Amino acid sequence: METDAGRMDHAVAVFTSGGDAPGMNAVVRSVVRCGIHHARDVFAVYEGYQGLVDGAGKIRKMEWTDVQMMIYKGGTVIGSARCKEFREREGRLAACKHLVDRGITNIICCGGDGSLTGANIFKLEWASLLEELRSSGRVTDAQAQKYANINIIGCVGSIDNDMVYDGTLTIGTDTALHRIVDAIDAVQSTASSHQRTFVLEIMGRHCGYLAWAAGVATGADYIFIPEAPSKHDDWESVLCAKLDHQRKRGARLCTVLVAEGAIDKFGKPIKTEYVRQVIIDRLGHDTRSTILGHVQRGGYASAYDRFLGSVSGALAVERLLRTKPEDASTIVGVKGYSVAFNPLVETIEATQMVAKHTEQLDFEAAIQARGKDFKRHWAIQKSINRDFAKREAVPDAGKNICIICSGAPAGGVNAAVRSANHYALNLGYAVYAAYDGFQGFLEGNIKPLAWEDVLGWAGDGGCNLRCDRSVPSDPDAMNEICKQFKLDALLVIGGFDGLKGIYHMRDEVTVPVAYVPATISNNVPGTDFSIGSDTALNAIVSAIDTCKKSADASKSRVFIIEVQGRNSGYLTVLSALASGADIAYTPEKGVTLEQMQADIEEIKSHIKKHNKRHFVVVRNEFCSPAYDLNFMETLFREEGKGCFSVRTVKLGHLCQGDYPSPLDRIRATTLAATATEHLIKCIKGEETENKKVLVGFSESKDVVRTMEEACQDADWTRRVPASEPWAWLLNLQQCLSGFMDQVDDNQEYDATAGKLVTNVLLNGAPTTIKKVLLQPEEQDQGTQA
Ligand SMILES: Nc1ncnc2c1ncn2[C@@H]1O[C@H](COP(=O)(O)OP(=O)(O)O)[C@@H](O)[C@H]1O
Ligand SMILES: O=P(O)(O)OC[C@H]1O[C@](O)(COP(=O)(O)O)[C@@H](O)[C@@H]1O
């Protein structure tokens, strides 16, 4: 059996297969660059399995520069196809031969469950395919021995988010949500003008995730999904009663979403046109329908999908390097900032079970099999949408919850307020709003917030309750206001300073308080994400895309782009990673003159050796107390010595974004509902211990944490958590951009846990890495992009 060291010279191939999904290009880019980083030959297989079967020019060796300017694009630059031949042994035999000829035994397949099933069949059959080729003389004995094993890793590319696995979203889902939510926002504004009802069909043959998520993000009134049809025989009456009620309470429009594969409880398909006709016939609403179709799969990739594709591709390469012949194939799943490798066969089986349960009309099993979060999140959506006028009598009616927005505006805050408001009202609790943050609260600027008041807030940017940065510090004053307004609980939505205030008064404030983190800086301890950070990332990434394209049209230009974030480099690192920027200067690492000079020299060397035309430096507003944007511009221009031109952009408050992103709306809705649920438990006396909590995310799951737990590693002076879970992504960004500075390689890959959560990319001496990154052009001059 060959040794690990012996396998180091085997090449890696990456292909995209099945339905295309935005973010696939980020996977390809990441695999190519990480493979080269590890001194491997990397091939891209064009047109999915068809390329493997056809061989020849469809399997191309990739160089560093071949994957430039592709991260932002939708679809897949290397093509995808549905290939009949690969379903037959003859086709797979041809594929095996083409791979052996090129010394490829490491495969990364980015596709849906069909593609990954094909990959598994290929792996299981590999030995017999090889033997057939050897016995017929098409490969030599030596080749058969050398390439006796094939390693396969899957990355899930599918806009449907239909994989049942340890991983939050599949690649492409978030971008599809951007397209869907944009379309629904647009439709809602015209629908509102004419008081219309719109029925929209959303993709998802077997999976209702897109319809659910789009519904939550846009505040849709009714959602049909395959896994959870209405329990009523006559769903038409239920739908119409709901829409009628909405209208009578003042809603100017109604939105109904129908997943492509929606069915009723008898398994009969629910078609968009039929729904429209029912609404016209029974309610007489002016009702229109729109089938969004392939628009949902197209367009530029969202920031999250670029992040997801980049991390998945890199970690797939890392995993391949450590795969032993006896290891089963795995699928990469990303949750928060950590990665899980899921067993391929079991994952696909679990995924297919959902469709089977649905076919058998066992919907309880279907929604359970989707994963427990889905069931819970579906229930949250239903609670928010429930018709509160018809609610059963609630013992705690007469209790009041007050919402306070603190800090700076962040995309999704209004969705959080809407969610908390509807959730609480539907359970019989009155909701109050404090205007102008804690300042307003302490001044008694508090008013009831009616159900109708927050209509349309799911997609609103800014902060409709108005926020301010004051930090509360007087618990007596807080208690006095609660007493005066008969407030039984507080829901605070905001950034670091509000949390700090609540944390320090936690024992003195008498009412329960739930804190939902919301700031674009993503600097709140106790959570992986804060509301608003995804909107900000998308705004920044889109601005960098524009600058990159402008720079690419010029001859050798460096853009230095300053982003917000205060003492947190989150926005800097994540936007650099997602946009394919070259250099990221963060407050955590700081920036020295020496570092900038080294980077300038590196830029010059890239221009000479790789003929690269543009460079992007992303700097955080606080990355250096001494070297501001103007200084950097002067330094780069002066030391560039005419080799490149320099332009600067200070994004400032544009980082806060305009309309909140789908992810922020969904995160906000879920967190606020979970927080309100917790407050209600406290009011009811069901929760007696943890009455001051932070409701945030851990590995993308919503979690309720005590203030002590959440704030245990808060650095109160720098206003950041002492350990930032995303910190290792700077290493990945550097690896993928080819600009690596001095790195620390102390952290280890945890083989027992099967998890890669550290800077494993940096194993090996930094100087060697740098050299490897610069080698490809020198090795093979002929393959420029
Ligand atoms: N059981 C299988 N055996 C061999 N190849 C398969 C199998 N299932 C799918 N494939 C290959 O994967 C391709 C894409 O699969 P498909 O189900 O269409 O898309 P997706 O990957 O998006 O689920 C197919 O065209 C075929 O080439
Ligand atoms: O609007 P202001 O008060 O000038 O604040 C701008 C700051 O607000 C933020 O957008 C968010 O601030 P926080 O980090 O305090 O939540 C920062 O990234 C930025 O520096």
Q: What does this protein look like?
A:
With 785 residues, this protein is an alpha/beta fold. The protein has four domains: 8-170 and 301-353, Rossmann fold (3-Layer(aba) Sandwich); 173-297, Rossmann fold (3-Layer(aba) Sandwich); 390-532 and 660-711, Rossmann fold; 541-656, Phosphofructokinase domain (Rossmann fold), CATH 3.40.50. The chain is built from 26 helices and 24 strands. A seven-stranded mixed sheet has the order 3-2-1-4-5-10-11, sandwiched between helices. Strand 15, helix 18 and strand 16 form a beta-alpha-beta unit. Helix 7 packs across helix 8 (209-218) and helix 14 crosses helix 15. Mean pLDDT is 90; it is low at 1-8 and 742-785. Adenosine-5'-diphosphate is lined by residues 17-19, 49, 82-83, 86-87, 111-115, 117-118, 121, 158. Its cofactor is Mg(2+). This is 6-phosphofructokinase.
